[in-house]
Design a protein that fits this description.
By secondary structure, this protein is of the alpha+beta class. The protein is built from eleven helices and ten strands. Helix 1 packs across helix 4 and helix 10 packs across helix 11. The longest helix has 22 residues.
């Protein structure tokens, strides 16, 4: 039984690794967070109602049209937040999903996050909040800022139950400011949207001299069958709500993000060890993971 489970897990990891043209080095992929979710993501990809490709036609997501039509209304609220310095990095290392992005200049303000409560969004962005609330397939949303020189390194998102929608609000309108998904680039433009599958390798850079603000949404992946859609919805509500992070005091912090604060403190010692001797660090990391894998198989 254990051997079967390990085989299914490894098959799922191979599926994630070989999906698309751009790949991480295999050892990195093997221990990447997207591999821990690989069996769930294999299920999502097998029963997905949309084709397996990096970019998807927006015509398949007509429910998002109110966002595009009201992009100037949404932009006005984003710019007000920007003036108030509310679009920012997490202040207490309690954003498990996006903590690694902050060191490269990326900032955010949550408007919606699955079943988590963000009273700050309703208070500060009432019109955008109401628009998002009227579209059930939008499970999470935020304003995301990428300043001049900002970048996001190549990565896969860990959960395939959603697709990613970006709507340009206040962008450089410049090809030097772009996102690359599986080797295909898209440059943001004011008032224009794009839908992509974030479980392909993607990265972004703002090589222009102007700031970039977008509306960033997680849209529930359409599934072929009602039962599969119900499974996806339950997993999203259970797993992703636990990763919620606050904009300010009074917003909900999920269990995963609360635990992440502890792991971040422990990570300081890990980073010191890595800086002291990178070879010893890699050997220790490999040994711990190999030991855990052996324990799962043989115990």
């Amino acid at each position: 039984m254990k051997l079967t489970l390990v085989s299914v897990y490894l098959l799922s990891v191979f599926h994630i690794h070989f999906r698309g043209r751009v790949r991480l080095p295999f050892l990195r992929q093997l221990f990447d967070h997207s591999s821990f979710m690989a069996p769930i993501n294999l299920f999502m990809h097998l029963f997905s109602r949309v084709p397996g490709r990096p970019y998807l036609a927006l015509e398949q997501f007509g429910e998002l049209e109110p966002l595009r039509r009201n992009w100037e209304v949404i932009r006005a609220e984003a710019e007000q937040l920007l003036a108030l310095q509310k679009i920012k990095a997490a202040e207490q290392n309690d954003d498990a999903g996006f903590n690694s992005f902050f060191k490269n200049g990326w900032k955010r303000f949550y408007l919606k996050w699955y079943d988590a409560s963000h009273p700050s969004a309703e208070r500060l962005c009432p019109r955008t909040h109401a628009l998002l609330k009227s579209i059930p397939s939008v499970k999470a949303a935020m304003f995301a800022e990428l300043p001049p020189g900002g970048k996001l390194n190549p990565h896969r998102d860990p959960y395939a139950g959603s697709l990613r929608y970006h709507l340009g609000l206040a962008t450089p309108n410049d090809d030097r400011c772009f996102i690359d998904v599986d080797g295909e680039r898209h440059s943001w433009r004011d008032g224009q949207g794009v839908m992509f599958d974030e479980t392909y390798i993607h990265w972004a850079v703002n090589g222009s001299e102007r700031d970039r603000i977008i509306l960033f949404c997680d849209v529930e992946r359409p599934m072929r069958y009602r039962w599969a859609q119900a499974v996806n919805r339950w997993l999203g509500r259970t797993l992703m709500t636990a990763a919620s992070s606050p904009n300010e005091t009074g917003d909900q912090t999920g269990l995963v993000s609360r635990l992440f604060k502890i792991s971040f403190v422990m990570g300081r010692y890990r980073r010191r060890y890595k800086a002291w001797n990178k070879t010893a660090y890699k050997l220790t990391k490999f040994g711990l993971i190999a030991g855990l894998a052996a324990a799962i198989v043989f115990l």
